[in-house]
């Protein structure tokens, strides 16, 4: 058998690249073998010669050779040198320019097709500039008692470090499920056993998990319009037909739902604090909704976001607590009470569906984390959670008043705030004729985040308005943001 | 208007219940109003009288009345007493026994239908008894340098507490994406920029995210058989037709794939360490696979699990590094190198698909966590990660030898271990004729976890065998487990 000597002249190393020399060399030689520039049977120059030629250490060359040998491309023979042993199979079409072109074409068409398919999720926009005022959904982080949090974390780790590092229960850490059940019963009138509580990665995953468990391709979902678009893209992602249902001061009006277009499998509502308008669903509407669900077999997804923050009167009980037919999936989150990067929330699901939710969850991401859930459980048991909510409630109420004051100062006649007294954001109605998206864009240029109300609507139009968060910002930030907002509204 | 006096005789409180009296009372009265046992316009007895009758404090009764008043069921009139104000709407069908029966029927049929639909995921079994030997996938937790981990955590919090509590980038914490890109380039020959790295909740979510982005209902997926069933249930959950492809010592044999049954959209493989058999895919098979993908437009999901633990030779480079057509999605996890409850893993996706993965991720659970990812990034940058892998590699190699010794001692003739020298588990072939599920069941009774090989197969049958984990157990645990396993194998 002949062993032609190979020159390796095609190998070019880039001394300026951050990529280590050994890896560059390994990759370039592999590439040359796979594209038949280095043919099987050929003998390589010695590592010493190559090291001199490429101005690298001999160890670098030997490292690359070792790797290529381990992977079956090269073989060293005692006293005879190193040989290319891998012969590129005949089928390997990418060796030829025609093969490469054909492949590039397939790849391009594939990506175009994928992009086409995924167009339906274009509605999913990411909120900009994380902490800029007046972004909604941002809690007051400088007031989070992080030192207490860390004490709780230390305490749970002291008790059970080993057991908190391993695999947990798919539905969540039991003491947290128990603490959530107690908390929801006491504060939200939710009727549940700890076994019905499912710990998940924030309310977004809660909604996703619900859709994944209850919804089948082609089924119908009714949603509040305006409503939470993060839920809509989930339902549409599962191939559901999402039908908007109008909202007024009493919440979603189920009597105006498109009943003739098919039975709803899911009905998504935010009865405590309609998103984004902030109204509370009336009792009669609640009974109508529950009645429809029980009679039709629909499930209700009750998004109870921000219900902890009500500044006048008592919070209304949950829809879940009024349900007698096991039709409600209740969704809540810790992200806005504790801190957003926790990414922990919970569902309360009907008892007969717990195992189905468990199956879905194990498909989506297996087991949940353990250390943070254990920390929250202790944080709740020791009363820190309830105390923090009480403190934030009065702080946020103050900040809402500051927002009202600032609007009165800078924006009288330009913007009218909703009267609602709850949550972490409110709606400001624009008095002029400028479309809200335009005001939002101008505000953003002035460093103020204020999403347009039209972003949350689908079919039913609203007067132009902005969604304004106040919870996460100090007095001076609120004042300054409203001043800049005033500059963004054309007279 | 008449105001009949109501007796409230139907209200029964359970003094022994753990449910607070006030909530019981609130709930019972609400129930009585909603079911028309207490009619609108009726006047309630005084709170003093009721407190005496029920032997509770007057505050308890007033608390319940306040809540019912806030929710619109009751109204107090100065000097005249408290009245039921909520009149149950005529439509409310659950008031009548017939309405309730009809509703119960709808609910029962709905749950039966759901259960029927979800039958397809029955294959998803949860592994039992988390830490019992010889469960596969359990790393050595007592050797995890948790103190160092906590130091890194403190350091990152000191630097950026505020910014680590808020919302993060959907694709993950940038310094971690950068650290992963460097790590994978240096150790796995992966070719990627940090922007292609997607941080996710463990490899299970990585696979789920991939399916959610690339797969459409009704498309075909090819999977190794035997293979990772946690991936199969994901693909089937998205409505894919999953077709088994046989595996031999060279890995998945793409030439035996069911090409005539339709083009594959996804091909799921574990080339470094076939799951569960442990073989490494040969170079020729790798090129064939890449060639098929480039020519057909299929995507390859490369599950590179356990590739860090190879006890002889050098680990083979990834398939991803050999790909020239952007067809490979690379999946890895931190759960088994650091600790399982972290629930963090990563994908490397083709550059053209990053935005589509971002859309999917934002639907599934919004933003990822920040504190743990920041801690991992520092843990990697400071070299603790690489050092821990090196230590575990030699520890696991020792433990694999201990397993071989114990099998030689107690199971000679009954079980033959695979020769493979990598990973955290190995395969033991049963020499007798007893089906492996039966041996697994007997072992479980003896306190030993040893999943049957048949659990991982779909169409192609294998001789009976067990999957045996050795990484997470001490010498005495391994010895003892093998002894008990020997007792579980009928002679």
Q: Main β-sheet of chain A: number of strands, strand sense, barrel status? A: 8 strands, mixed
| CA-atom Rg of chain A in angstroms | 30 Å
Largest interface: A-B, 114 and 114 residues
Helix residue percentage of chain A: 40-55%
The counted number of beta strands of chain A is 13
Unreliable stretches of chain A, pLDDT < 50, 5 or more residues?
none
* Outline type of chain A: elongated
Number of helices in the DSSP assignment of chain A: 14
List the helices and strands and how they pair.
2 copies of one chain form a homodimer.
Chain A: H1 21-34, H2 47-54, H3 58-70, E1 74-77, E2 81-84, H4 97-117, H5 146-165, H6 174-188, E3 197-200, H7 202-214, E4 220-225, H8 229-237, E5 241-248, E6 251-252, E7 264-269, H9 283-296, E8 299-303, E9 328-333, E10 345-348, H10 354-365, H11 371-381, H12 384-410, E11 415-417, E12 425-430, H13 436-445, E13 465-469, H14 475-488
Parallel strand pairs in A: 4-5, 4-7, 7-8, 8-9
Antiparallel strand pairs in A: 1-2, 3-10, 5-6, 9-10, 11-12, 12-13
Description of the structure:
Two copies of one chain form a homodimer. By secondary structure, chain A is α/β, with parallel strands linked by helices. Helix content of chain A is 41%, strand content 13%. In chain A, the strands form three sheets. An eight-stranded mixed β-sheet of chain A has the order 3-10-9-8-7-4-5-6, sandwiched between helices. In chain A, helix 5 packs across helix 11, helix 12 packs parallel to helix 14 (475-488) and helix 13 crosses helix 14. The N and C termini of chain A lie far apart (89 Å). The interface between A and B is large, with 114 and 114 residues.
